[in-house]
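One chain is below:
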Amino acid sequence: MVEYELSDAAIIGIITLSLEGLEGARLASGGGRSVGDVLSGRRGRPVRISREEGRIRVELQLVARYGEPLRELAEQVQRTVYDVLTATTGLKVEAVDVVFADVTAEGEHAA
């Protein structure tokens, strides 16, 4: 059996690459900030990873293009990230949570 570790940075890289061709949304550049982030002075992050007992949970902060069907877009992102992480890392993905941090006009979106 091969033992290996994956850093959060490696997992974030995999997630980022899996969403490169996504139409209608992109990862938020600074991420939304929670109350805890504001009070602690931490910067918001577009990808948050939590691990527990061999399972991983991912939260993605996205910016959607105005007019996109958000429910379908969220489902597509969840499915894509789940499938890629499961196939490439072998990790047990507990959840992929999608938070739409912002909505932009067509010209402002660079997905």
